[in-house]
Write a structure and sequence with these properties.
The complex is a heterodimer of chains A (about 170) and B (about 130). Chain A is an alpha+beta fold and about 170 residues long. Chain A has a single domain, classed as 3-Layer(aba) Sandwich (Chemotaxis protein chec). Chain A is built from 3 helices and 8 strands, in the order αββββααββββ. The longest helix of chain A has 22 residues. Chain B is of the alpha/beta class and about 130 residues long. In chain B, helix 2 packs parallel to helix 3. The radius of gyration of chain B is 13 Å and the shape is globular. The model of chain B has no long low-confidence stretch (mean pLDDT about 95). The chains are: A alpha+beta (about 170), B alpha/beta (about 130). At the A-B interface, helix 1, helix 2 and helix 3 of A face helix 1 of B.
Chain lengths: ~170, ~130
């Protein structure tokens, strides 16, 4: 995928993430310049992710594709985000916030899916998952290109990965 | 039927976060008779048990995507029984595609809400499910 195609593919995800933060967390999110990621280490203690598989029709040809989106947070930022989303102040990790990041990933994927459908993508979503722990790795699907984008808002910074491969 | 904060409400979602968000929004509207289920399967059981006990749920709010029984299958089960034909049913979904909405309307959904949503949007949807 060239840079132009990547930008077009990733825009619905970034827009959905911004909308989710604006509507459900009452905070404006800004995206920094995306860059290629060449390792599997997460930029944070908690990562929420959701996979996608499907087909894309371009120029009359149908191709399979797969990918994943991942959101990696520091514990401090995750607590603030979960507190804002659950409308409850948390000062330490609590079981109520276990799947908060996964729910955000789920909403982002669901909304991006609708927009990408207008561009010829038919996307199947996997069940969102979560990985927790210092220096954990993210299992990106093999041979995918991973682009990471640092995101900033009043609640703190985190990293949003989008990976994709046409088969 | 008008919205009554005292009504018995079932919230169905496999994600704890979304159940807590909806519960929080309903609590702020004065609701306190709230039951949670983490999938369509336990929800369907709870709906039938509540009916047998003579204390049926008066409003069901369900996510669409759940691993055991989906929200649309739960809705179809509910509408298949005469006693639940008119039970208000609000579908919550992150997949805003028109095809999904058509399927839900055909299955008898009262209304639907697309994630992400604010408390104000949630209240507007409740007003549509329960017109004054």
């Amino acid at each position: 995928m060239n840079v132009e195609a990547y930008v077009k593919f990733s825009k619905p995800f970034i827009d959905a993430l911004k909308d989710t933060f604006k509507i459900m967390l009452s905070t404006e999110l800004s995206a920094h310049s995306p860059k290629m990621k060449t390792h599997n280490k997460a930029h944070g203690e908690i990562t929420a992710m959701i996979g996608m598989t499907g087909t894309v029709e371009k120029d009359g040809k149908v191709q399979d594709f797969n990918g994943l989106i991942a959101l990696s947070f520091s514990k401090e930022v995750y607590l603030k985000i979960a507190s804002a989303m659950l409308m409850q102040e948390f000062t330490d990790y609590h079981e109520d916030m276990e799947d908060t990041g996964a729910e955000i990933a789920n909403i982002v994927m669901g909304n991006a899916k609708k927009v990408l459908a207008t561009q010829g993508y038919k996307i199947g979503m996997s069940t969102p998952t979560r990985v927790k722990g210092l220096n954990h790795e993210i299992k990106y699907p093999s041979n995918t290109t991973v682009i990471e984008t640092s995101m900033s808002c009043a609640l703190g910074d985190f990293v949003f990965d989008i990976c994709y491969r046409e088969n | 039927m008008a919205f009554d904060p005292k009504m018995k409400i079932l919230i169905v979602d496999d994600m704890n976060t979304m159940r807590k968000i909806i519960k929080g929004m309903l609590t702020k509207l004065g609701c306190d008779n709230l039951t949670e289920a983490d999938d369509g399967i336990p929800a369907w059981e709870a709906i039938q048990v509540a009916q047998k006990e003579g204390k049926p749920f008066q409003f069901i709010i369900s996510d669409w995507n759940m691993p055991g029984m989906t929200g649309i299958d739960l809705l179809k089960n509910v509408r298949s029984k005469p006693e639940f034909k008119t039970t208000p049913f609000l579908m919550v979904t992150a997949e805003a595609e028109q095809a999904n909405i058509v399927v839900a309307v055909k299955a008898g959904v009262s209304n639907y809400i697309i994630k992400p949503f604010s408390p104000d949007t949630f209240k507007l949807k409740l007003d549509k499910v329960f017109p004054k």
